[in-house]
Amino acid sequence: MPxxxxxxxxxxxxxxxxxxxxxxxxxxxxxxxxxxxHLLAKHSLIEKRKWxxxxxxxxxxxVIRELRRGKTTGLGNYLDSLRTLREHADYHVDxxxxxxxxxxxxxxxxxxxxxxxxxxxxxxWNNAKGIxxxxxxxxxxx
Length: 142
Prior knowledge:
single chain; mainly alpha
């Protein structure tokens, strides 16, 4: 295990939303869920598959690509879904920002006709939480 246990990001996310479920907290918590799963998966791939990260931003897609090989395809897909939710939470402050044109959550908001009170909401959180729990369970079995 790395010196910092990435699962603590998951614990922090749960605690944060338990304290306050405003949009800033939801966005931050979704991001922490993703990083808990990404870092644990990356560490497992290094340890168990002797995978070598590049040390750059493309490690995010690299981890997903590696997980989609063999019997861990489902885990790769879950992590990719969680990454998409993290990107929405981190970057899309409204449905018209550059990059949001390819975001399914932003697309739904644009199609609704009226801006929602929150661009990241409790539904996004619940989705991310469920995906992260599936990811963590599968990572534990790598």
